[in-house]
Amino acid sequence: MSGLLLSALLLLAGCGGGGPQCGPYARSVTGLPLSGPAAGWWAQSDGRFAHSARPRPGAVLVFRRTGRLPDGHVSVVRAVVARRRIMVEHANWEPGRIDRAVPVTDVSPGNDWSLVRVWWAPSRRMGRTIYPTFGFILPAN
User: Fold this and answer.
1) Which residues form the Peptidase C51 domain (predicted)?
2) Among 15, 48, 95, 116, which is most buried by a count of CB atoms within 10 Å?
3) Which pLDDT tens digit goes with each residue over 121-132?
4) Contacting residues for 42 by C-beta, under 8 A, at least 6 apart
5) How does pLDDT run across 92-117, given as a tens digit for each residue?
6) CATH number of 3-138, picked from 3.20.20.70, 3.40.50.300, 1.10.486.10, 3.90.1720.10
């Protein structure tokens, strides 16, 4: 099976409605050799890749498991806009879609990106829900 075909199958694997999932999408964009539930990427990457409380382009923001995100979530940082604002791309935040240039805001009291709000395209504004995160995985350059 060709690498391109395999990547396409991984993007669609396990998706309700046939859309892409966040983990396989982030893996295809960053090359990080991580798999399984998105929240598990933090522990999987420990000792293999640097972790940070500060974003940088190409880093992966790892969301913790919550009632709304039972497997967690991962987003790829595309730009640091300001100290507390980044732009990401990710899959399946809006079911079945890949979204690019999505604003994410740090709302943590310690300015450490441990709590964030994410743009919700259907409402055309920042979402109201505050999501806990582990931080950023920094892929090797």
Assistant:
1) 1-117
2) 116
3) 999 999 999 999
4) 51, 62, 134, 135, 137
5) 999 999 999 999 999 999 999 999 99
6) 3.90.1720.10
